[in-house]
Amino acid sequence: MKTFGYFVLFMAIAVIAIVLGIIVGDYGAWYFSWLIGSVMMILVAAAGGVLFDAQIEDRVRDPQ
Question: What domain range includes position 50?
Answer without folding.
Answer: 2-61
